[in-house]
Amino acid sequence: MAKVSLVDLDVTSKRRPFPNLALMKLSAYHKSKGDEVYLNFPLIQPDITYASCVFTWNGRRRDGLPPEAIIGGSGVDLKAELPPEVEHIMPDYSLYPNVDFSMGFTSRGCIRKCPWCIVPEKEGQIKPWARIYEFWDRRHTKITLLDNNLLAAPNWRQTMEDLIAEGLKVDFNQGLDIRLLNEENLDYLKRVKASELRFAF
Ligand code: SF4
To answer: InterPro entries given for it (predicted)?
Structure first.
């Protein structure tokens, strides 16, 4: 049994941001192997250390990590990916005890190439990624979708139908592309439970 240290570099004493999805998946994977997993707990002597950083302004915090640490996240490395057996595992939501919603991607990539955005380089062309059942914990009535451009995804209808069928309250966290609205997807959007819809253009 290995001791696994997970380091969320975006957590600071002043700011506790969004739960880190990659770390929740690594936690689930290692727990499934019988390993002990610790989050931001520097007092152990770990066998493996993973660190993740989403925001570039926290990237320099990696300097305090052991040299053998495996580091990923868009704040430090646009090309690092989780292996498929980790990427497609149910996240371990217990890693962030205050989280009362599920989260994940049903698609990756984007059809656009906005010059300020890392998504085209990081994820490439848009593609289906998962159905909500891969990351929806049945104890949650809320779900946050992290898709970059859901309405452009080839599987957007399936995702909407799943959300409607399960009655989940959804947060389209990255916003919806207003240029892609049409009568068909508007009809779906009227039927999903969303307290607010954010649009980008
Ligand atoms: S539409 Fe959004 S996700 Fe796609 S490239 Fe532009 S900013 Fe990035």
So the answer is: rSAM_sf
